[in-house]
Each structure stands twice: as structure tokens, then as C-alpha cells.
Amino acid sequence: MRSGSIRLFQVAGIEVFLHFSWFFVALYQLTSRPHGYASPIFAVYEYLALFLIVLLHEFGHAFACRQTGGIANLILLWPFGGVAFVQPPPRPAAQLWSIAAGPLVNVVLIPVFASLLYALLRSDLRFTMPDLSRLLMMTGYINIVILIFNLLPIYPLDGGQILRSLLWFPLGQIASLKIASIIGLIGGIAITLFAITTGSILYILLSLFLLSQAFAGWRHAKALQLEEEVVDVSGAPRPPVL
Predict the structure, then answer these.
(1) Average pLDDT for consecutive 10-residue bins of the chain (242 residues)?
(2) C or N: which end of the chain has fewer Cβ atoms within 10 Å?
(3) So where are the chain's domains?
(4) Are the C-beta atoms of residues 96 and 166 closer than 8 Å to each other?
């Protein structure tokens, strides 16, 4: 996924990269989708707001992972959103907090956008700057859509990984990953069928990404199971899981 990306900046030791395909998708979105603004520049502002919301979401993952003692040094932004490369300790609680912190950022942003829009609508600016009112309304809507989409229980979306973390407590690391991966494969197939019926190239690409990552999760679970079986045969002691 790092191939073809450019480095933007670094915050607290976390490097942020942007995939080159983001520019093509941004150009497509800005030129082909009706935006409803009197001034076209506000369509650009809206897309940049989407960029900022996704970035804050990924920083939520990264900083939460570091709180658990994990490693988080890289964020990649690409057309389907963002990916925070986090490595929390192999504990369900650490995994759960590292994943849940991203959607929590979107939850915190809901009253922020609502307050700004309310203040704007209560002032005369709603008449003199209607584009600004629409921008705040659309940005708040985008934030909610990102939140809802990410909470879908489809691995590797946040919802799927949260489900996996919750299952980890009673079922263990391997079984929880297997179940989450199977649900992810089913969800990816469903999105593929939806993409085919709508003819959306972006949804097709998204579904292919979800399917590939769900399959990778299944393979990782099988590898962990094999590793555990080797340990059982060798009789080597296992470290305690906290």
C-alpha cells in the first residue's frame, strides 16, 4: 500500500503519507459530482474537510495504540479513506482501545460541527454566506457517514475489528480473528454485489480491498493456529496473556 505514496509531514513521530491515486479520485469527485455551491471553491473546501476528518480519525487510532504500549508510526491516506498502521500489544483490551479510538474521534466531532452550524444559522451569515452554511452542514453529514460506515461489522473496517476484539475476550485470539474474517468475506461479497448492480467503480475497488484484507485476516488466523500447534507439540511454555 505504501507504493506510489508521497510523504506529507510528521506529527509526534507519526509520518503521514498520501497515495498518488488520491489526486485522481479528488479530481473525479470535484468535477463529476454536483455540489450545490454557488462558488466552486467551496466544493474544494468540502473535499479538504473530508481529508481532515479522515486524518483526525487515523490519529485517534495511532495515539490510542501508543497509550497501550504499542507501535504506531505511520498513517497512509488514500481514496478509500486512511490506514493507521498500528501494532498494539497482543491483548484484547489493547486491540479494542486502539481500534475504537478512531470512531470516537468522529463521535466527538458531531457536537462540534452541530454547534458551529447552529451558531452560523443564528447569525446573519446564513443569508450573506449560504455556501458556508452548506459547507458546515455537508461536513457534519460526511463525518456521520464516515462514522456509520466504519462501524459496519465487516473486517477489516473498524466495526469488524471491534467485533473481533470483543470476541477475543471469551474465544481467544485465533477464533475471534477467524469469525471476524468470515464475516468480512460475507460483507465484502455483499458490497461487491451492490457495486455491480450500481455500476460504481469505486465500490468495486473498495469491495476488492475488503475481500483481500478479510482473506488476509483468515490466513493470519491459520498461521497463528499453526504456530500454536507447533508450540503444543514442542512442549515449550507459553507466555501469560494479560
Answers:
(1) 82 92 76 78 89 95 96 89 91 96 97 92 82 91 94 94 96 95 94 86 84 93 88 51 34
(2) C
(3) 1-151, 153-234
(4) yes
